[in-house]
Amino acid sequence: MFPKDAWYVCAMSHEIAAGQVMSRTICNFPMAIYRAADGTASALLDRCPHRLYPLSAGTVEGDRLRCSYHGLSFAANGKCQEIPSQTEISATACVRSFPVREAHGLIWVWPGDVTRAEGTVLPGFETGEGYLSGLDFSCLDPSDRWGVAGPHVIHLNANYMLAVDNLLDLTHTAFVHATTFDNAGVLDSERTVKAVGDYQLIDFFAFKNTMSRPLRDGYILDEDVKLFDNFLETYWQAPSVMILVHGAVPEGGNREDDACATVLNTNILTPATDTTSHYFWAQSVYRNRGDGKVRDMWDMMTRAAFGEDEDVLERQQANLGRFGSTSLEDDVSVVLKADKGIVLARRIVSSMVKREGGNA
Ligand code: FES
Ligand SMILES: [Fe+2]
What we know:
The chain is an alpha+beta fold. The protein folds into 2 domains: 8-117, Rieske Iron-sulfur Protein (3-layer Sandwich), CATH 2.102.10.10; 137-355, Naphthalene 1,2-dioxygenase Alpha Subunit, Chain A, domain 1 (Alpha-Beta Complex), CATH 3.90.380.10. The chain has helices at residues 114-117, 160-167, 173-176, 213-219, 293-322, 328-331, 340-355; strands at 8-12, 21-26, 29-35, 41-45, 59-61, 64-66, 73-74, 80-82, 97-98, 100-103, 106-109, 146-156, 190-196, 200-209, 228-237, 241-250, 261-271, 277-286. The strands form 4 sheets. It has a 7-stranded antiparallel β-sheet. β10 and β11 form a beta hairpin. The longest helix has 30 residues, at 293-322. The protein is globular, with a radius of gyration of 22 Å. The structure holds FE2/S2 (inorganic) cluster and fe (ii) ion (FE2). The site of FE2/S2 (inorganic) cluster has 9 residues, from loops.
């Protein structure tokens, strides 16, 4: 199940240079994603309407994509502009095109109803006042404010909502990441999960702890401080866009103080097929703490941790297949208090799918 009327990241900007084309499947649509000579990114269905050859095997010429079989050339709107073997171009000589936007190093595509993309904005979060005010993916632009590692992509052999579940229940970190983060404090944490408007949730953990060795090293915390306020705050926008704000401040301290470490972990899941997804992720370190050292440490630690998550999610997807479960929700028999965010998120995503006339 995935809503199609939504913006999904299909690629990172650096993956496609001007004049290049790549193939990627988004929401079960194989797409040819290309960048024109002027830098504009576009996405067409990866199937030439002539003999169904993959357009991603073609060549970019100016702002057009030419099929490399018999040479039909298509504009970004999908209309055929040239047929080398004849002068007439029929109205059926067109290929589906998808709305595309690009910002902050990410290329977003809208796989659904084109008319419903108009007037929409790319995901961003309601954070209220303070240092996170206006939180969006501008945190992926390296600046005085943010030290950035990534974005990266993992091509995951698991449904995208399994990864959303994973990120909306960070109690798994005590087990899956027992050595990478060693952060069992999350199990006894105060937890706030609530909806923000119709399409967003927050899922916040707050707890005091002495901070494990990996976390002390990762955040570069003052060794003389014994107790810290630890925070893990996920902002989620339906269906699968998240920023996890995490860090630690000496007990009772202020997040704007130099003693506080704050890291933003971007997590964006894009459905590829029903059982595979593209997982885009990055780290943004507030004020580039440690002159890049915190950024590099968290890039390395998160890479290791996401390898652990990847293993879990792929085993979980394989087990769904082994038991013939098409929908996890039909077959689960235990729902925990910790699942509140997951339940709310899945309810919102299901309602989006149903509104589009699909089966949630
Ligand atoms: S298949 Fe593309 S031009 Fe013939
Ligand atoms: Fe994890």
